[in-house]
From TrEMBL:
<protein>
    <submittedName>
        <fullName>ABC transporter substrate-binding protein</fullName>
    </submittedName>
</protein>
<dbReference type="InterPro" id="IPR028082">
    <property type="entry name" value="Peripla_BP_I"/>
</dbReference>
<dbReference type="Pfam" id="PF13458">
    <property type="entry name" value="Peripla_BP_6"/>
</dbReference>
<dbReference type="InterPro" id="IPR028081">
    <property type="entry name" value="Leu-bd"/>
</dbReference>
<feature type="domain" description="Leucine-binding protein">
    <location>
        <begin position="9"/>
        <end position="167"/>
    </location>
</feature>
<keyword id="KW-0732">Signal</keyword>
Amino acid sequence: MDGSGRACTKRRCRRAGMSIEDDIVFSLSENNFTTYMNQIDDTDVDFIFGLVAEAGKGPLLSYEESGVEKPMVGDLVASQSPQYLADINTENSNVISRTFTTWGSQLSDAAQEFVDMYESEYDSRPTKPTWAAFGSYVATQMYARARSEGGDSLDDTVTAMEEETFELNQTYSVYGPDEEAPDGNSYPHDLKYGPDFFQPTWSQWRDGEQVTVYPDKFANAEFELQ
């Protein structure tokens, strides 16, 4: 995450009443995370908020092996893969990752159709689509529909996408240029979040199964420190 993204995350955390005790940034070329884990272990915090995508599974494996008894929460892409348990050689994890869905939960027919297509196309890890794959699929489908319904010009396509709603496991829709979000701000073309639209699930691996711990309407378990 770049500097502006980190600054935005910090503001939102403080607005939610959380204090930030440290800010750790590592290079994508980094392959030794022991120092970072020791730094985390020595810091008096309730949890770690992490954003780990392009860096792959290395930082997460280091966390799992370190014995740090503080849950790691955030966008932790490698942990979404069904192969993650083989990576860490255990059936339990204190990683809580933002996901599209939990593999033990019931998928809608449309979402299951996409999963089936993905599995038939790819035989390497991740063997099931992750957060990014679902988002890319939805965005592509919304664009294709808007392009076919909105006419030939780019402006017509944009207008059609602003009015588009797409159902997968949840409802996908974007804000229009003059539309106000519930917090009073404007987020043109950003995804609408909330109970009536899209809500990410937060998932934990436990006893070899991926369970949803939040939000309540999707949860099939509560978080447990392993």
